[in-house]
Amino acid sequence: MQWLNPMNDPVVAYVRSYVETRIHRLRHETDRSRGASAIEWAIITGILALIAITVGWVIYRRVTAAANKINVDNGPGN
């Protein structure tokens, strides 16, 4: 019985060559602005997340305050 080697699979070979090509391009690229761009996007995303959390918190506080002002009357006899 011969064991199959998954590294000989054509799909695995294709993925490996694709990844190796991408790594080679990134390592030997003369324009290093991609890294800065990624950092800028991370900062922008963080700021937008903070804004979204703040807006959500304000909405939650206002809804909770309005809900606490509601007078609940269970009808006669209470």
Compute the CA-based radius of gyration.
29 Å
Low-confidence stretches: none
Strand coverage percent: under 5%
| Net shape | elongated
> Strand pairing plus helix content: what structural class?
mainly alpha
Q: Can you count the beta strands?
A: 0
Helical fraction: 55-70%
- Reading the helices and strands in chain order gives HH
Question: Distance N terminus to C terminus?
Answer: 83 Å
* H/I helix tally: 2
Mean pLDDT metric: 80
Largest sheet properties? none
Describe this structure in words.
The chain is an all-alpha fold and 78 residues long. The model has no long low-confidence stretch (mean pLDDT 80). The chain has two helices and no strands. The protein has helices at residues 10-27, 33-68. The protein has a domain at 37-69.
Summarize the structure.
By secondary structure, the protein is mainly α. It has 2 helices and no strands. It has helices spanning 10-27, 33-68.
